[in-house]
Amino acid sequence: MELDKMDENDWKYHGEGNKSLVVSHVQLPRVLRLLKYPAEDSENPPQTAEQAFRQIQNIVDFSSNVMSSLLGEKFIHSGEVVKLPLEFVRQLSIKVQQQRPAWRCDKVMDIYSGCALCLPDLTSPTLRQLTHTPPICIEIKPKCGFLPSPKHVSKDIKTKVCRFCMHQHYKVANGKWKRHSLYCPLDLFSGNRQRMHFAIRHLIEEPQNNFKIFKGGQCIFSSKEGSDDSVDLTSLLHHLRPYFLYGNNRINSHIPSKAVLNDFIQVLVNALLSGGGGGGEDGGMVTDRRGEGRSFCEASVFNKERIRHGSQGLPSDSVLSRILQTQMLDTLDIEGLYPLYRRVEQHLHDFPKERTRLQIDGPYNEAFLEKMQKCSAEDDGSVEYAAAKVHQYRVAMTAKDCSIMIALVPSSEEEDDDEGQRRLRDFRPPAFSYSVSILDLDPKPYDSIPRQLRLDQKIVSCYLKTGGALPKASLSPYPGIFAAAEREDCTLVFHAM
User: Fold this and answer.
1) Buried-most residue among 74, 202, 227, 489 (CB within 10 A)?
2) Which of residues 480 and 82 earns the better pLDDT score?
């Protein structure tokens, strides 16, 4: 990729979040992440090119020096900052504008700094192609996988119903989503295969922003915010069926829809439970250390009676275990943290130059990681303790908002395993070569903490007001394909493991 010969026609719109827009190269497995500004700032950029460069460098440093240490290097791709020709960026902005969703157009792409973050395109994995079938990539945004300790919360409901399930009520009430998702993160993070299968099934039924599927780099399954449309599961099955034609004498035979979905979900569960070596057995288990009851959400529709095996916990080197343990750096909840944030704020008001020493805005280096990890267990009243707890909270918030990318390439049984290509063979064929990555690891802004507290109060208040009941129209209709699959094949949804 020669930066001085950039051509906007080599790039296509890939997607965007709240703060950045992503384009992918049409031939190379590369993406560029460019910053976004509010549309009213389009004529007058809110920061200089140097500030934009520093902002993106902070993202790289935070990912490579902080999150990589906590989550495991094998899962992280930090990327690098690049300076692009301004004319290329302007032409690219014009080209992608028509492909952007209307509801995202309140912000515009940064065309002034020329700075971008260059990353590998995780939807086009570099796993060795063993078949003619294109790779399939699944992006899951798992959200927070535990309940807060009752010690620091003012409303008892927060210790019984998880943040995601409460937030669903608030989002439906405010029209962000038309239907309520029955996915519960605590089921996914439980380590219990039945609960995980149940959680992924509900992600498929109502994906929202939490579940996407890419085939050969193209998004083939996702939800549109504010849309009335149900997801097209028939189309999804059409895409998935070729991946599950192998083995068990099922070549060219009719595979029941439910068997395709069950096999697909089982592959995802295996990938999420596997560790660095592929089997998920080599790293030991992390038992449920969250205290009695903190791994079950009362709003989950999973029937606890269904659990056939009581063992709880995740393999310690699995991607979910690493994410959960990083999330649990938030030991105080936003309510317990806010007084410490106020302590830091008061100190910075009195001594503004201390902002640098306390590393409030970075740099995100080894010293930042050390301050956070060596934070004392007891509050000694110091500003150092308060700042360290704020750092821990921000890191935990990044882990609560990250995404997992699982890339799958069908492989043949005879192929030997390559370095870095782990195999999912511990269930019936087909086997897949796969890779697991964690993305969306930007540092959360220090000054967003008061907003986090206000949002938390609104979410809890909305949930208590409705008594946890949802308007009938917002309940996710049981999608036809799942209902049809139940009739088509009478074996149990949950396989005995």
Assistant:
1) 202
2) 82
Q: Report the percentage of the chain scoring pLDDT > 70.
A: 80
Asked if 313 and 198 touch (Cβ cutoff 8 Å), the reply is no
Query: Using omega within 30 degrees of 0 as the cis cutoff, is the peptide bond preceding 45 cis?
Result: no
**Phi, psi dihedral angles at 22 (to 5 degrees):** -120, 130
Distances (CA, A) of 71 to 219, 320, 350: 26, 9, 36
In the three-class reduction of DSSP (H, G, I as helix; E, B as strand; rest coil), residue 82 is classed as strand
The pLDDT tens digits for 333-388 are 999 999 999 999 999 999 999 999 999 999 999 999 999 999 998 999 999 999 99
Characterize 270-293 residue by residue with b for buried, 16 or more Cβ atoms within 10 angstroms of its Cβ, and e for exposed.
Answer: bbbbbbbebbbeebebbebebeee
Question: What's the CA gap between 433 and 488, in Å, rounded?
Answer: 30
Question: What is the distance between the alpha carbons of residues 67 and 59, in angstroms, rounded to a whole number?
Answer: 10
Tens of pLDDT, residue by residue over 106-150, are 999 999 999 999 999 998 876 555 557 788 999 999 999 999 999
- Non-local CB neighbours of 428 within 8 Å, separated by 6+ positions: 247, 248, 263
Please give the Cα distance from 135 to 310 (Å, whole number).
Answer: 35
CB of 110 within 8 A of CB of 44? no
CA distance 18 to 208: 15
Q: What is the pLDDT of residues 382-435, one digit of tens each?
A: 999 999 999 999 999 999 999 999 999 887 644 444 444 455 544 454 678 889
Q: Side-chain half-sphere of 25: how many Cα atoms within 13 Å?
A: 17
- How far from the centroid of its chain's Cα atoms is residue 144's Cα? 10
| Rounded CA separation 152/136 (Å) | 42
- Cβ atoms within 10 A of the Cβ of 191, count? 24
User: Tokens 């086009």 map to which residue?
Assistant: 124
Burial class (CB in 10 A: 0-12, 13-18, 19+), 378: exposed
Q: Whole-structure pTM over 0.70, yes or no?
A: yes
What does each C-alpha distance from 359 to 172, 263, 364, 367, 378 come to in angstroms?
38, 47, 8, 9, 21
The Cα-based distances of 86 to 4, 28, 54, 114, 115 in angstroms read 10, 21, 18, 5, 9
Q: Which residues pair with 117 in a beta bridge?
A: 33, 81
